[in-house]
Amino acid sequence: MTYFSHIERLLWLKSHTLVEKQCMLWVGTTINYRGVTYGRVKTRLCKTGSCKNYYVHILAFMMHNHTFITPHEVISHLCGNSLCLNVELLSREPHSVNCRGKFCHAHNSCNGHFDYLDCILF
Ligand SMILES: [Zn+2]
Ligand SMILES: [Zn+2]
Asked: Which of 7, 34, 81, 84 is deepest in the core (most CB within 10 A)?
């Protein structure tokens, strides 16, 4: 088992799937950031790295895509569920685009996000 798959397994074990919405919801530790609840886990990204807190949806995205997210980017929830880890419902975007889960989902309609993916409304 690679180190990355160890983290993926941890994320998988601590979430449960909402079949009807395809969301995989985190059931572990959460924090509140600006009124939104996010899953958080303390881990290290490589065996020699230091332990840090990571948002679980960002971890899930990085693990799945074998990539790293810069401080200028966000991982948006297309489904509007801030606790969701389903990588199919996550989108990598610059900060300026990220307003999902607020307006679109509150009004149940998506007006588009420039060149980025539309929200998924169930
Ligand atoms: Zn979701
Ligand atoms: Zn939208």
From this structure: 84
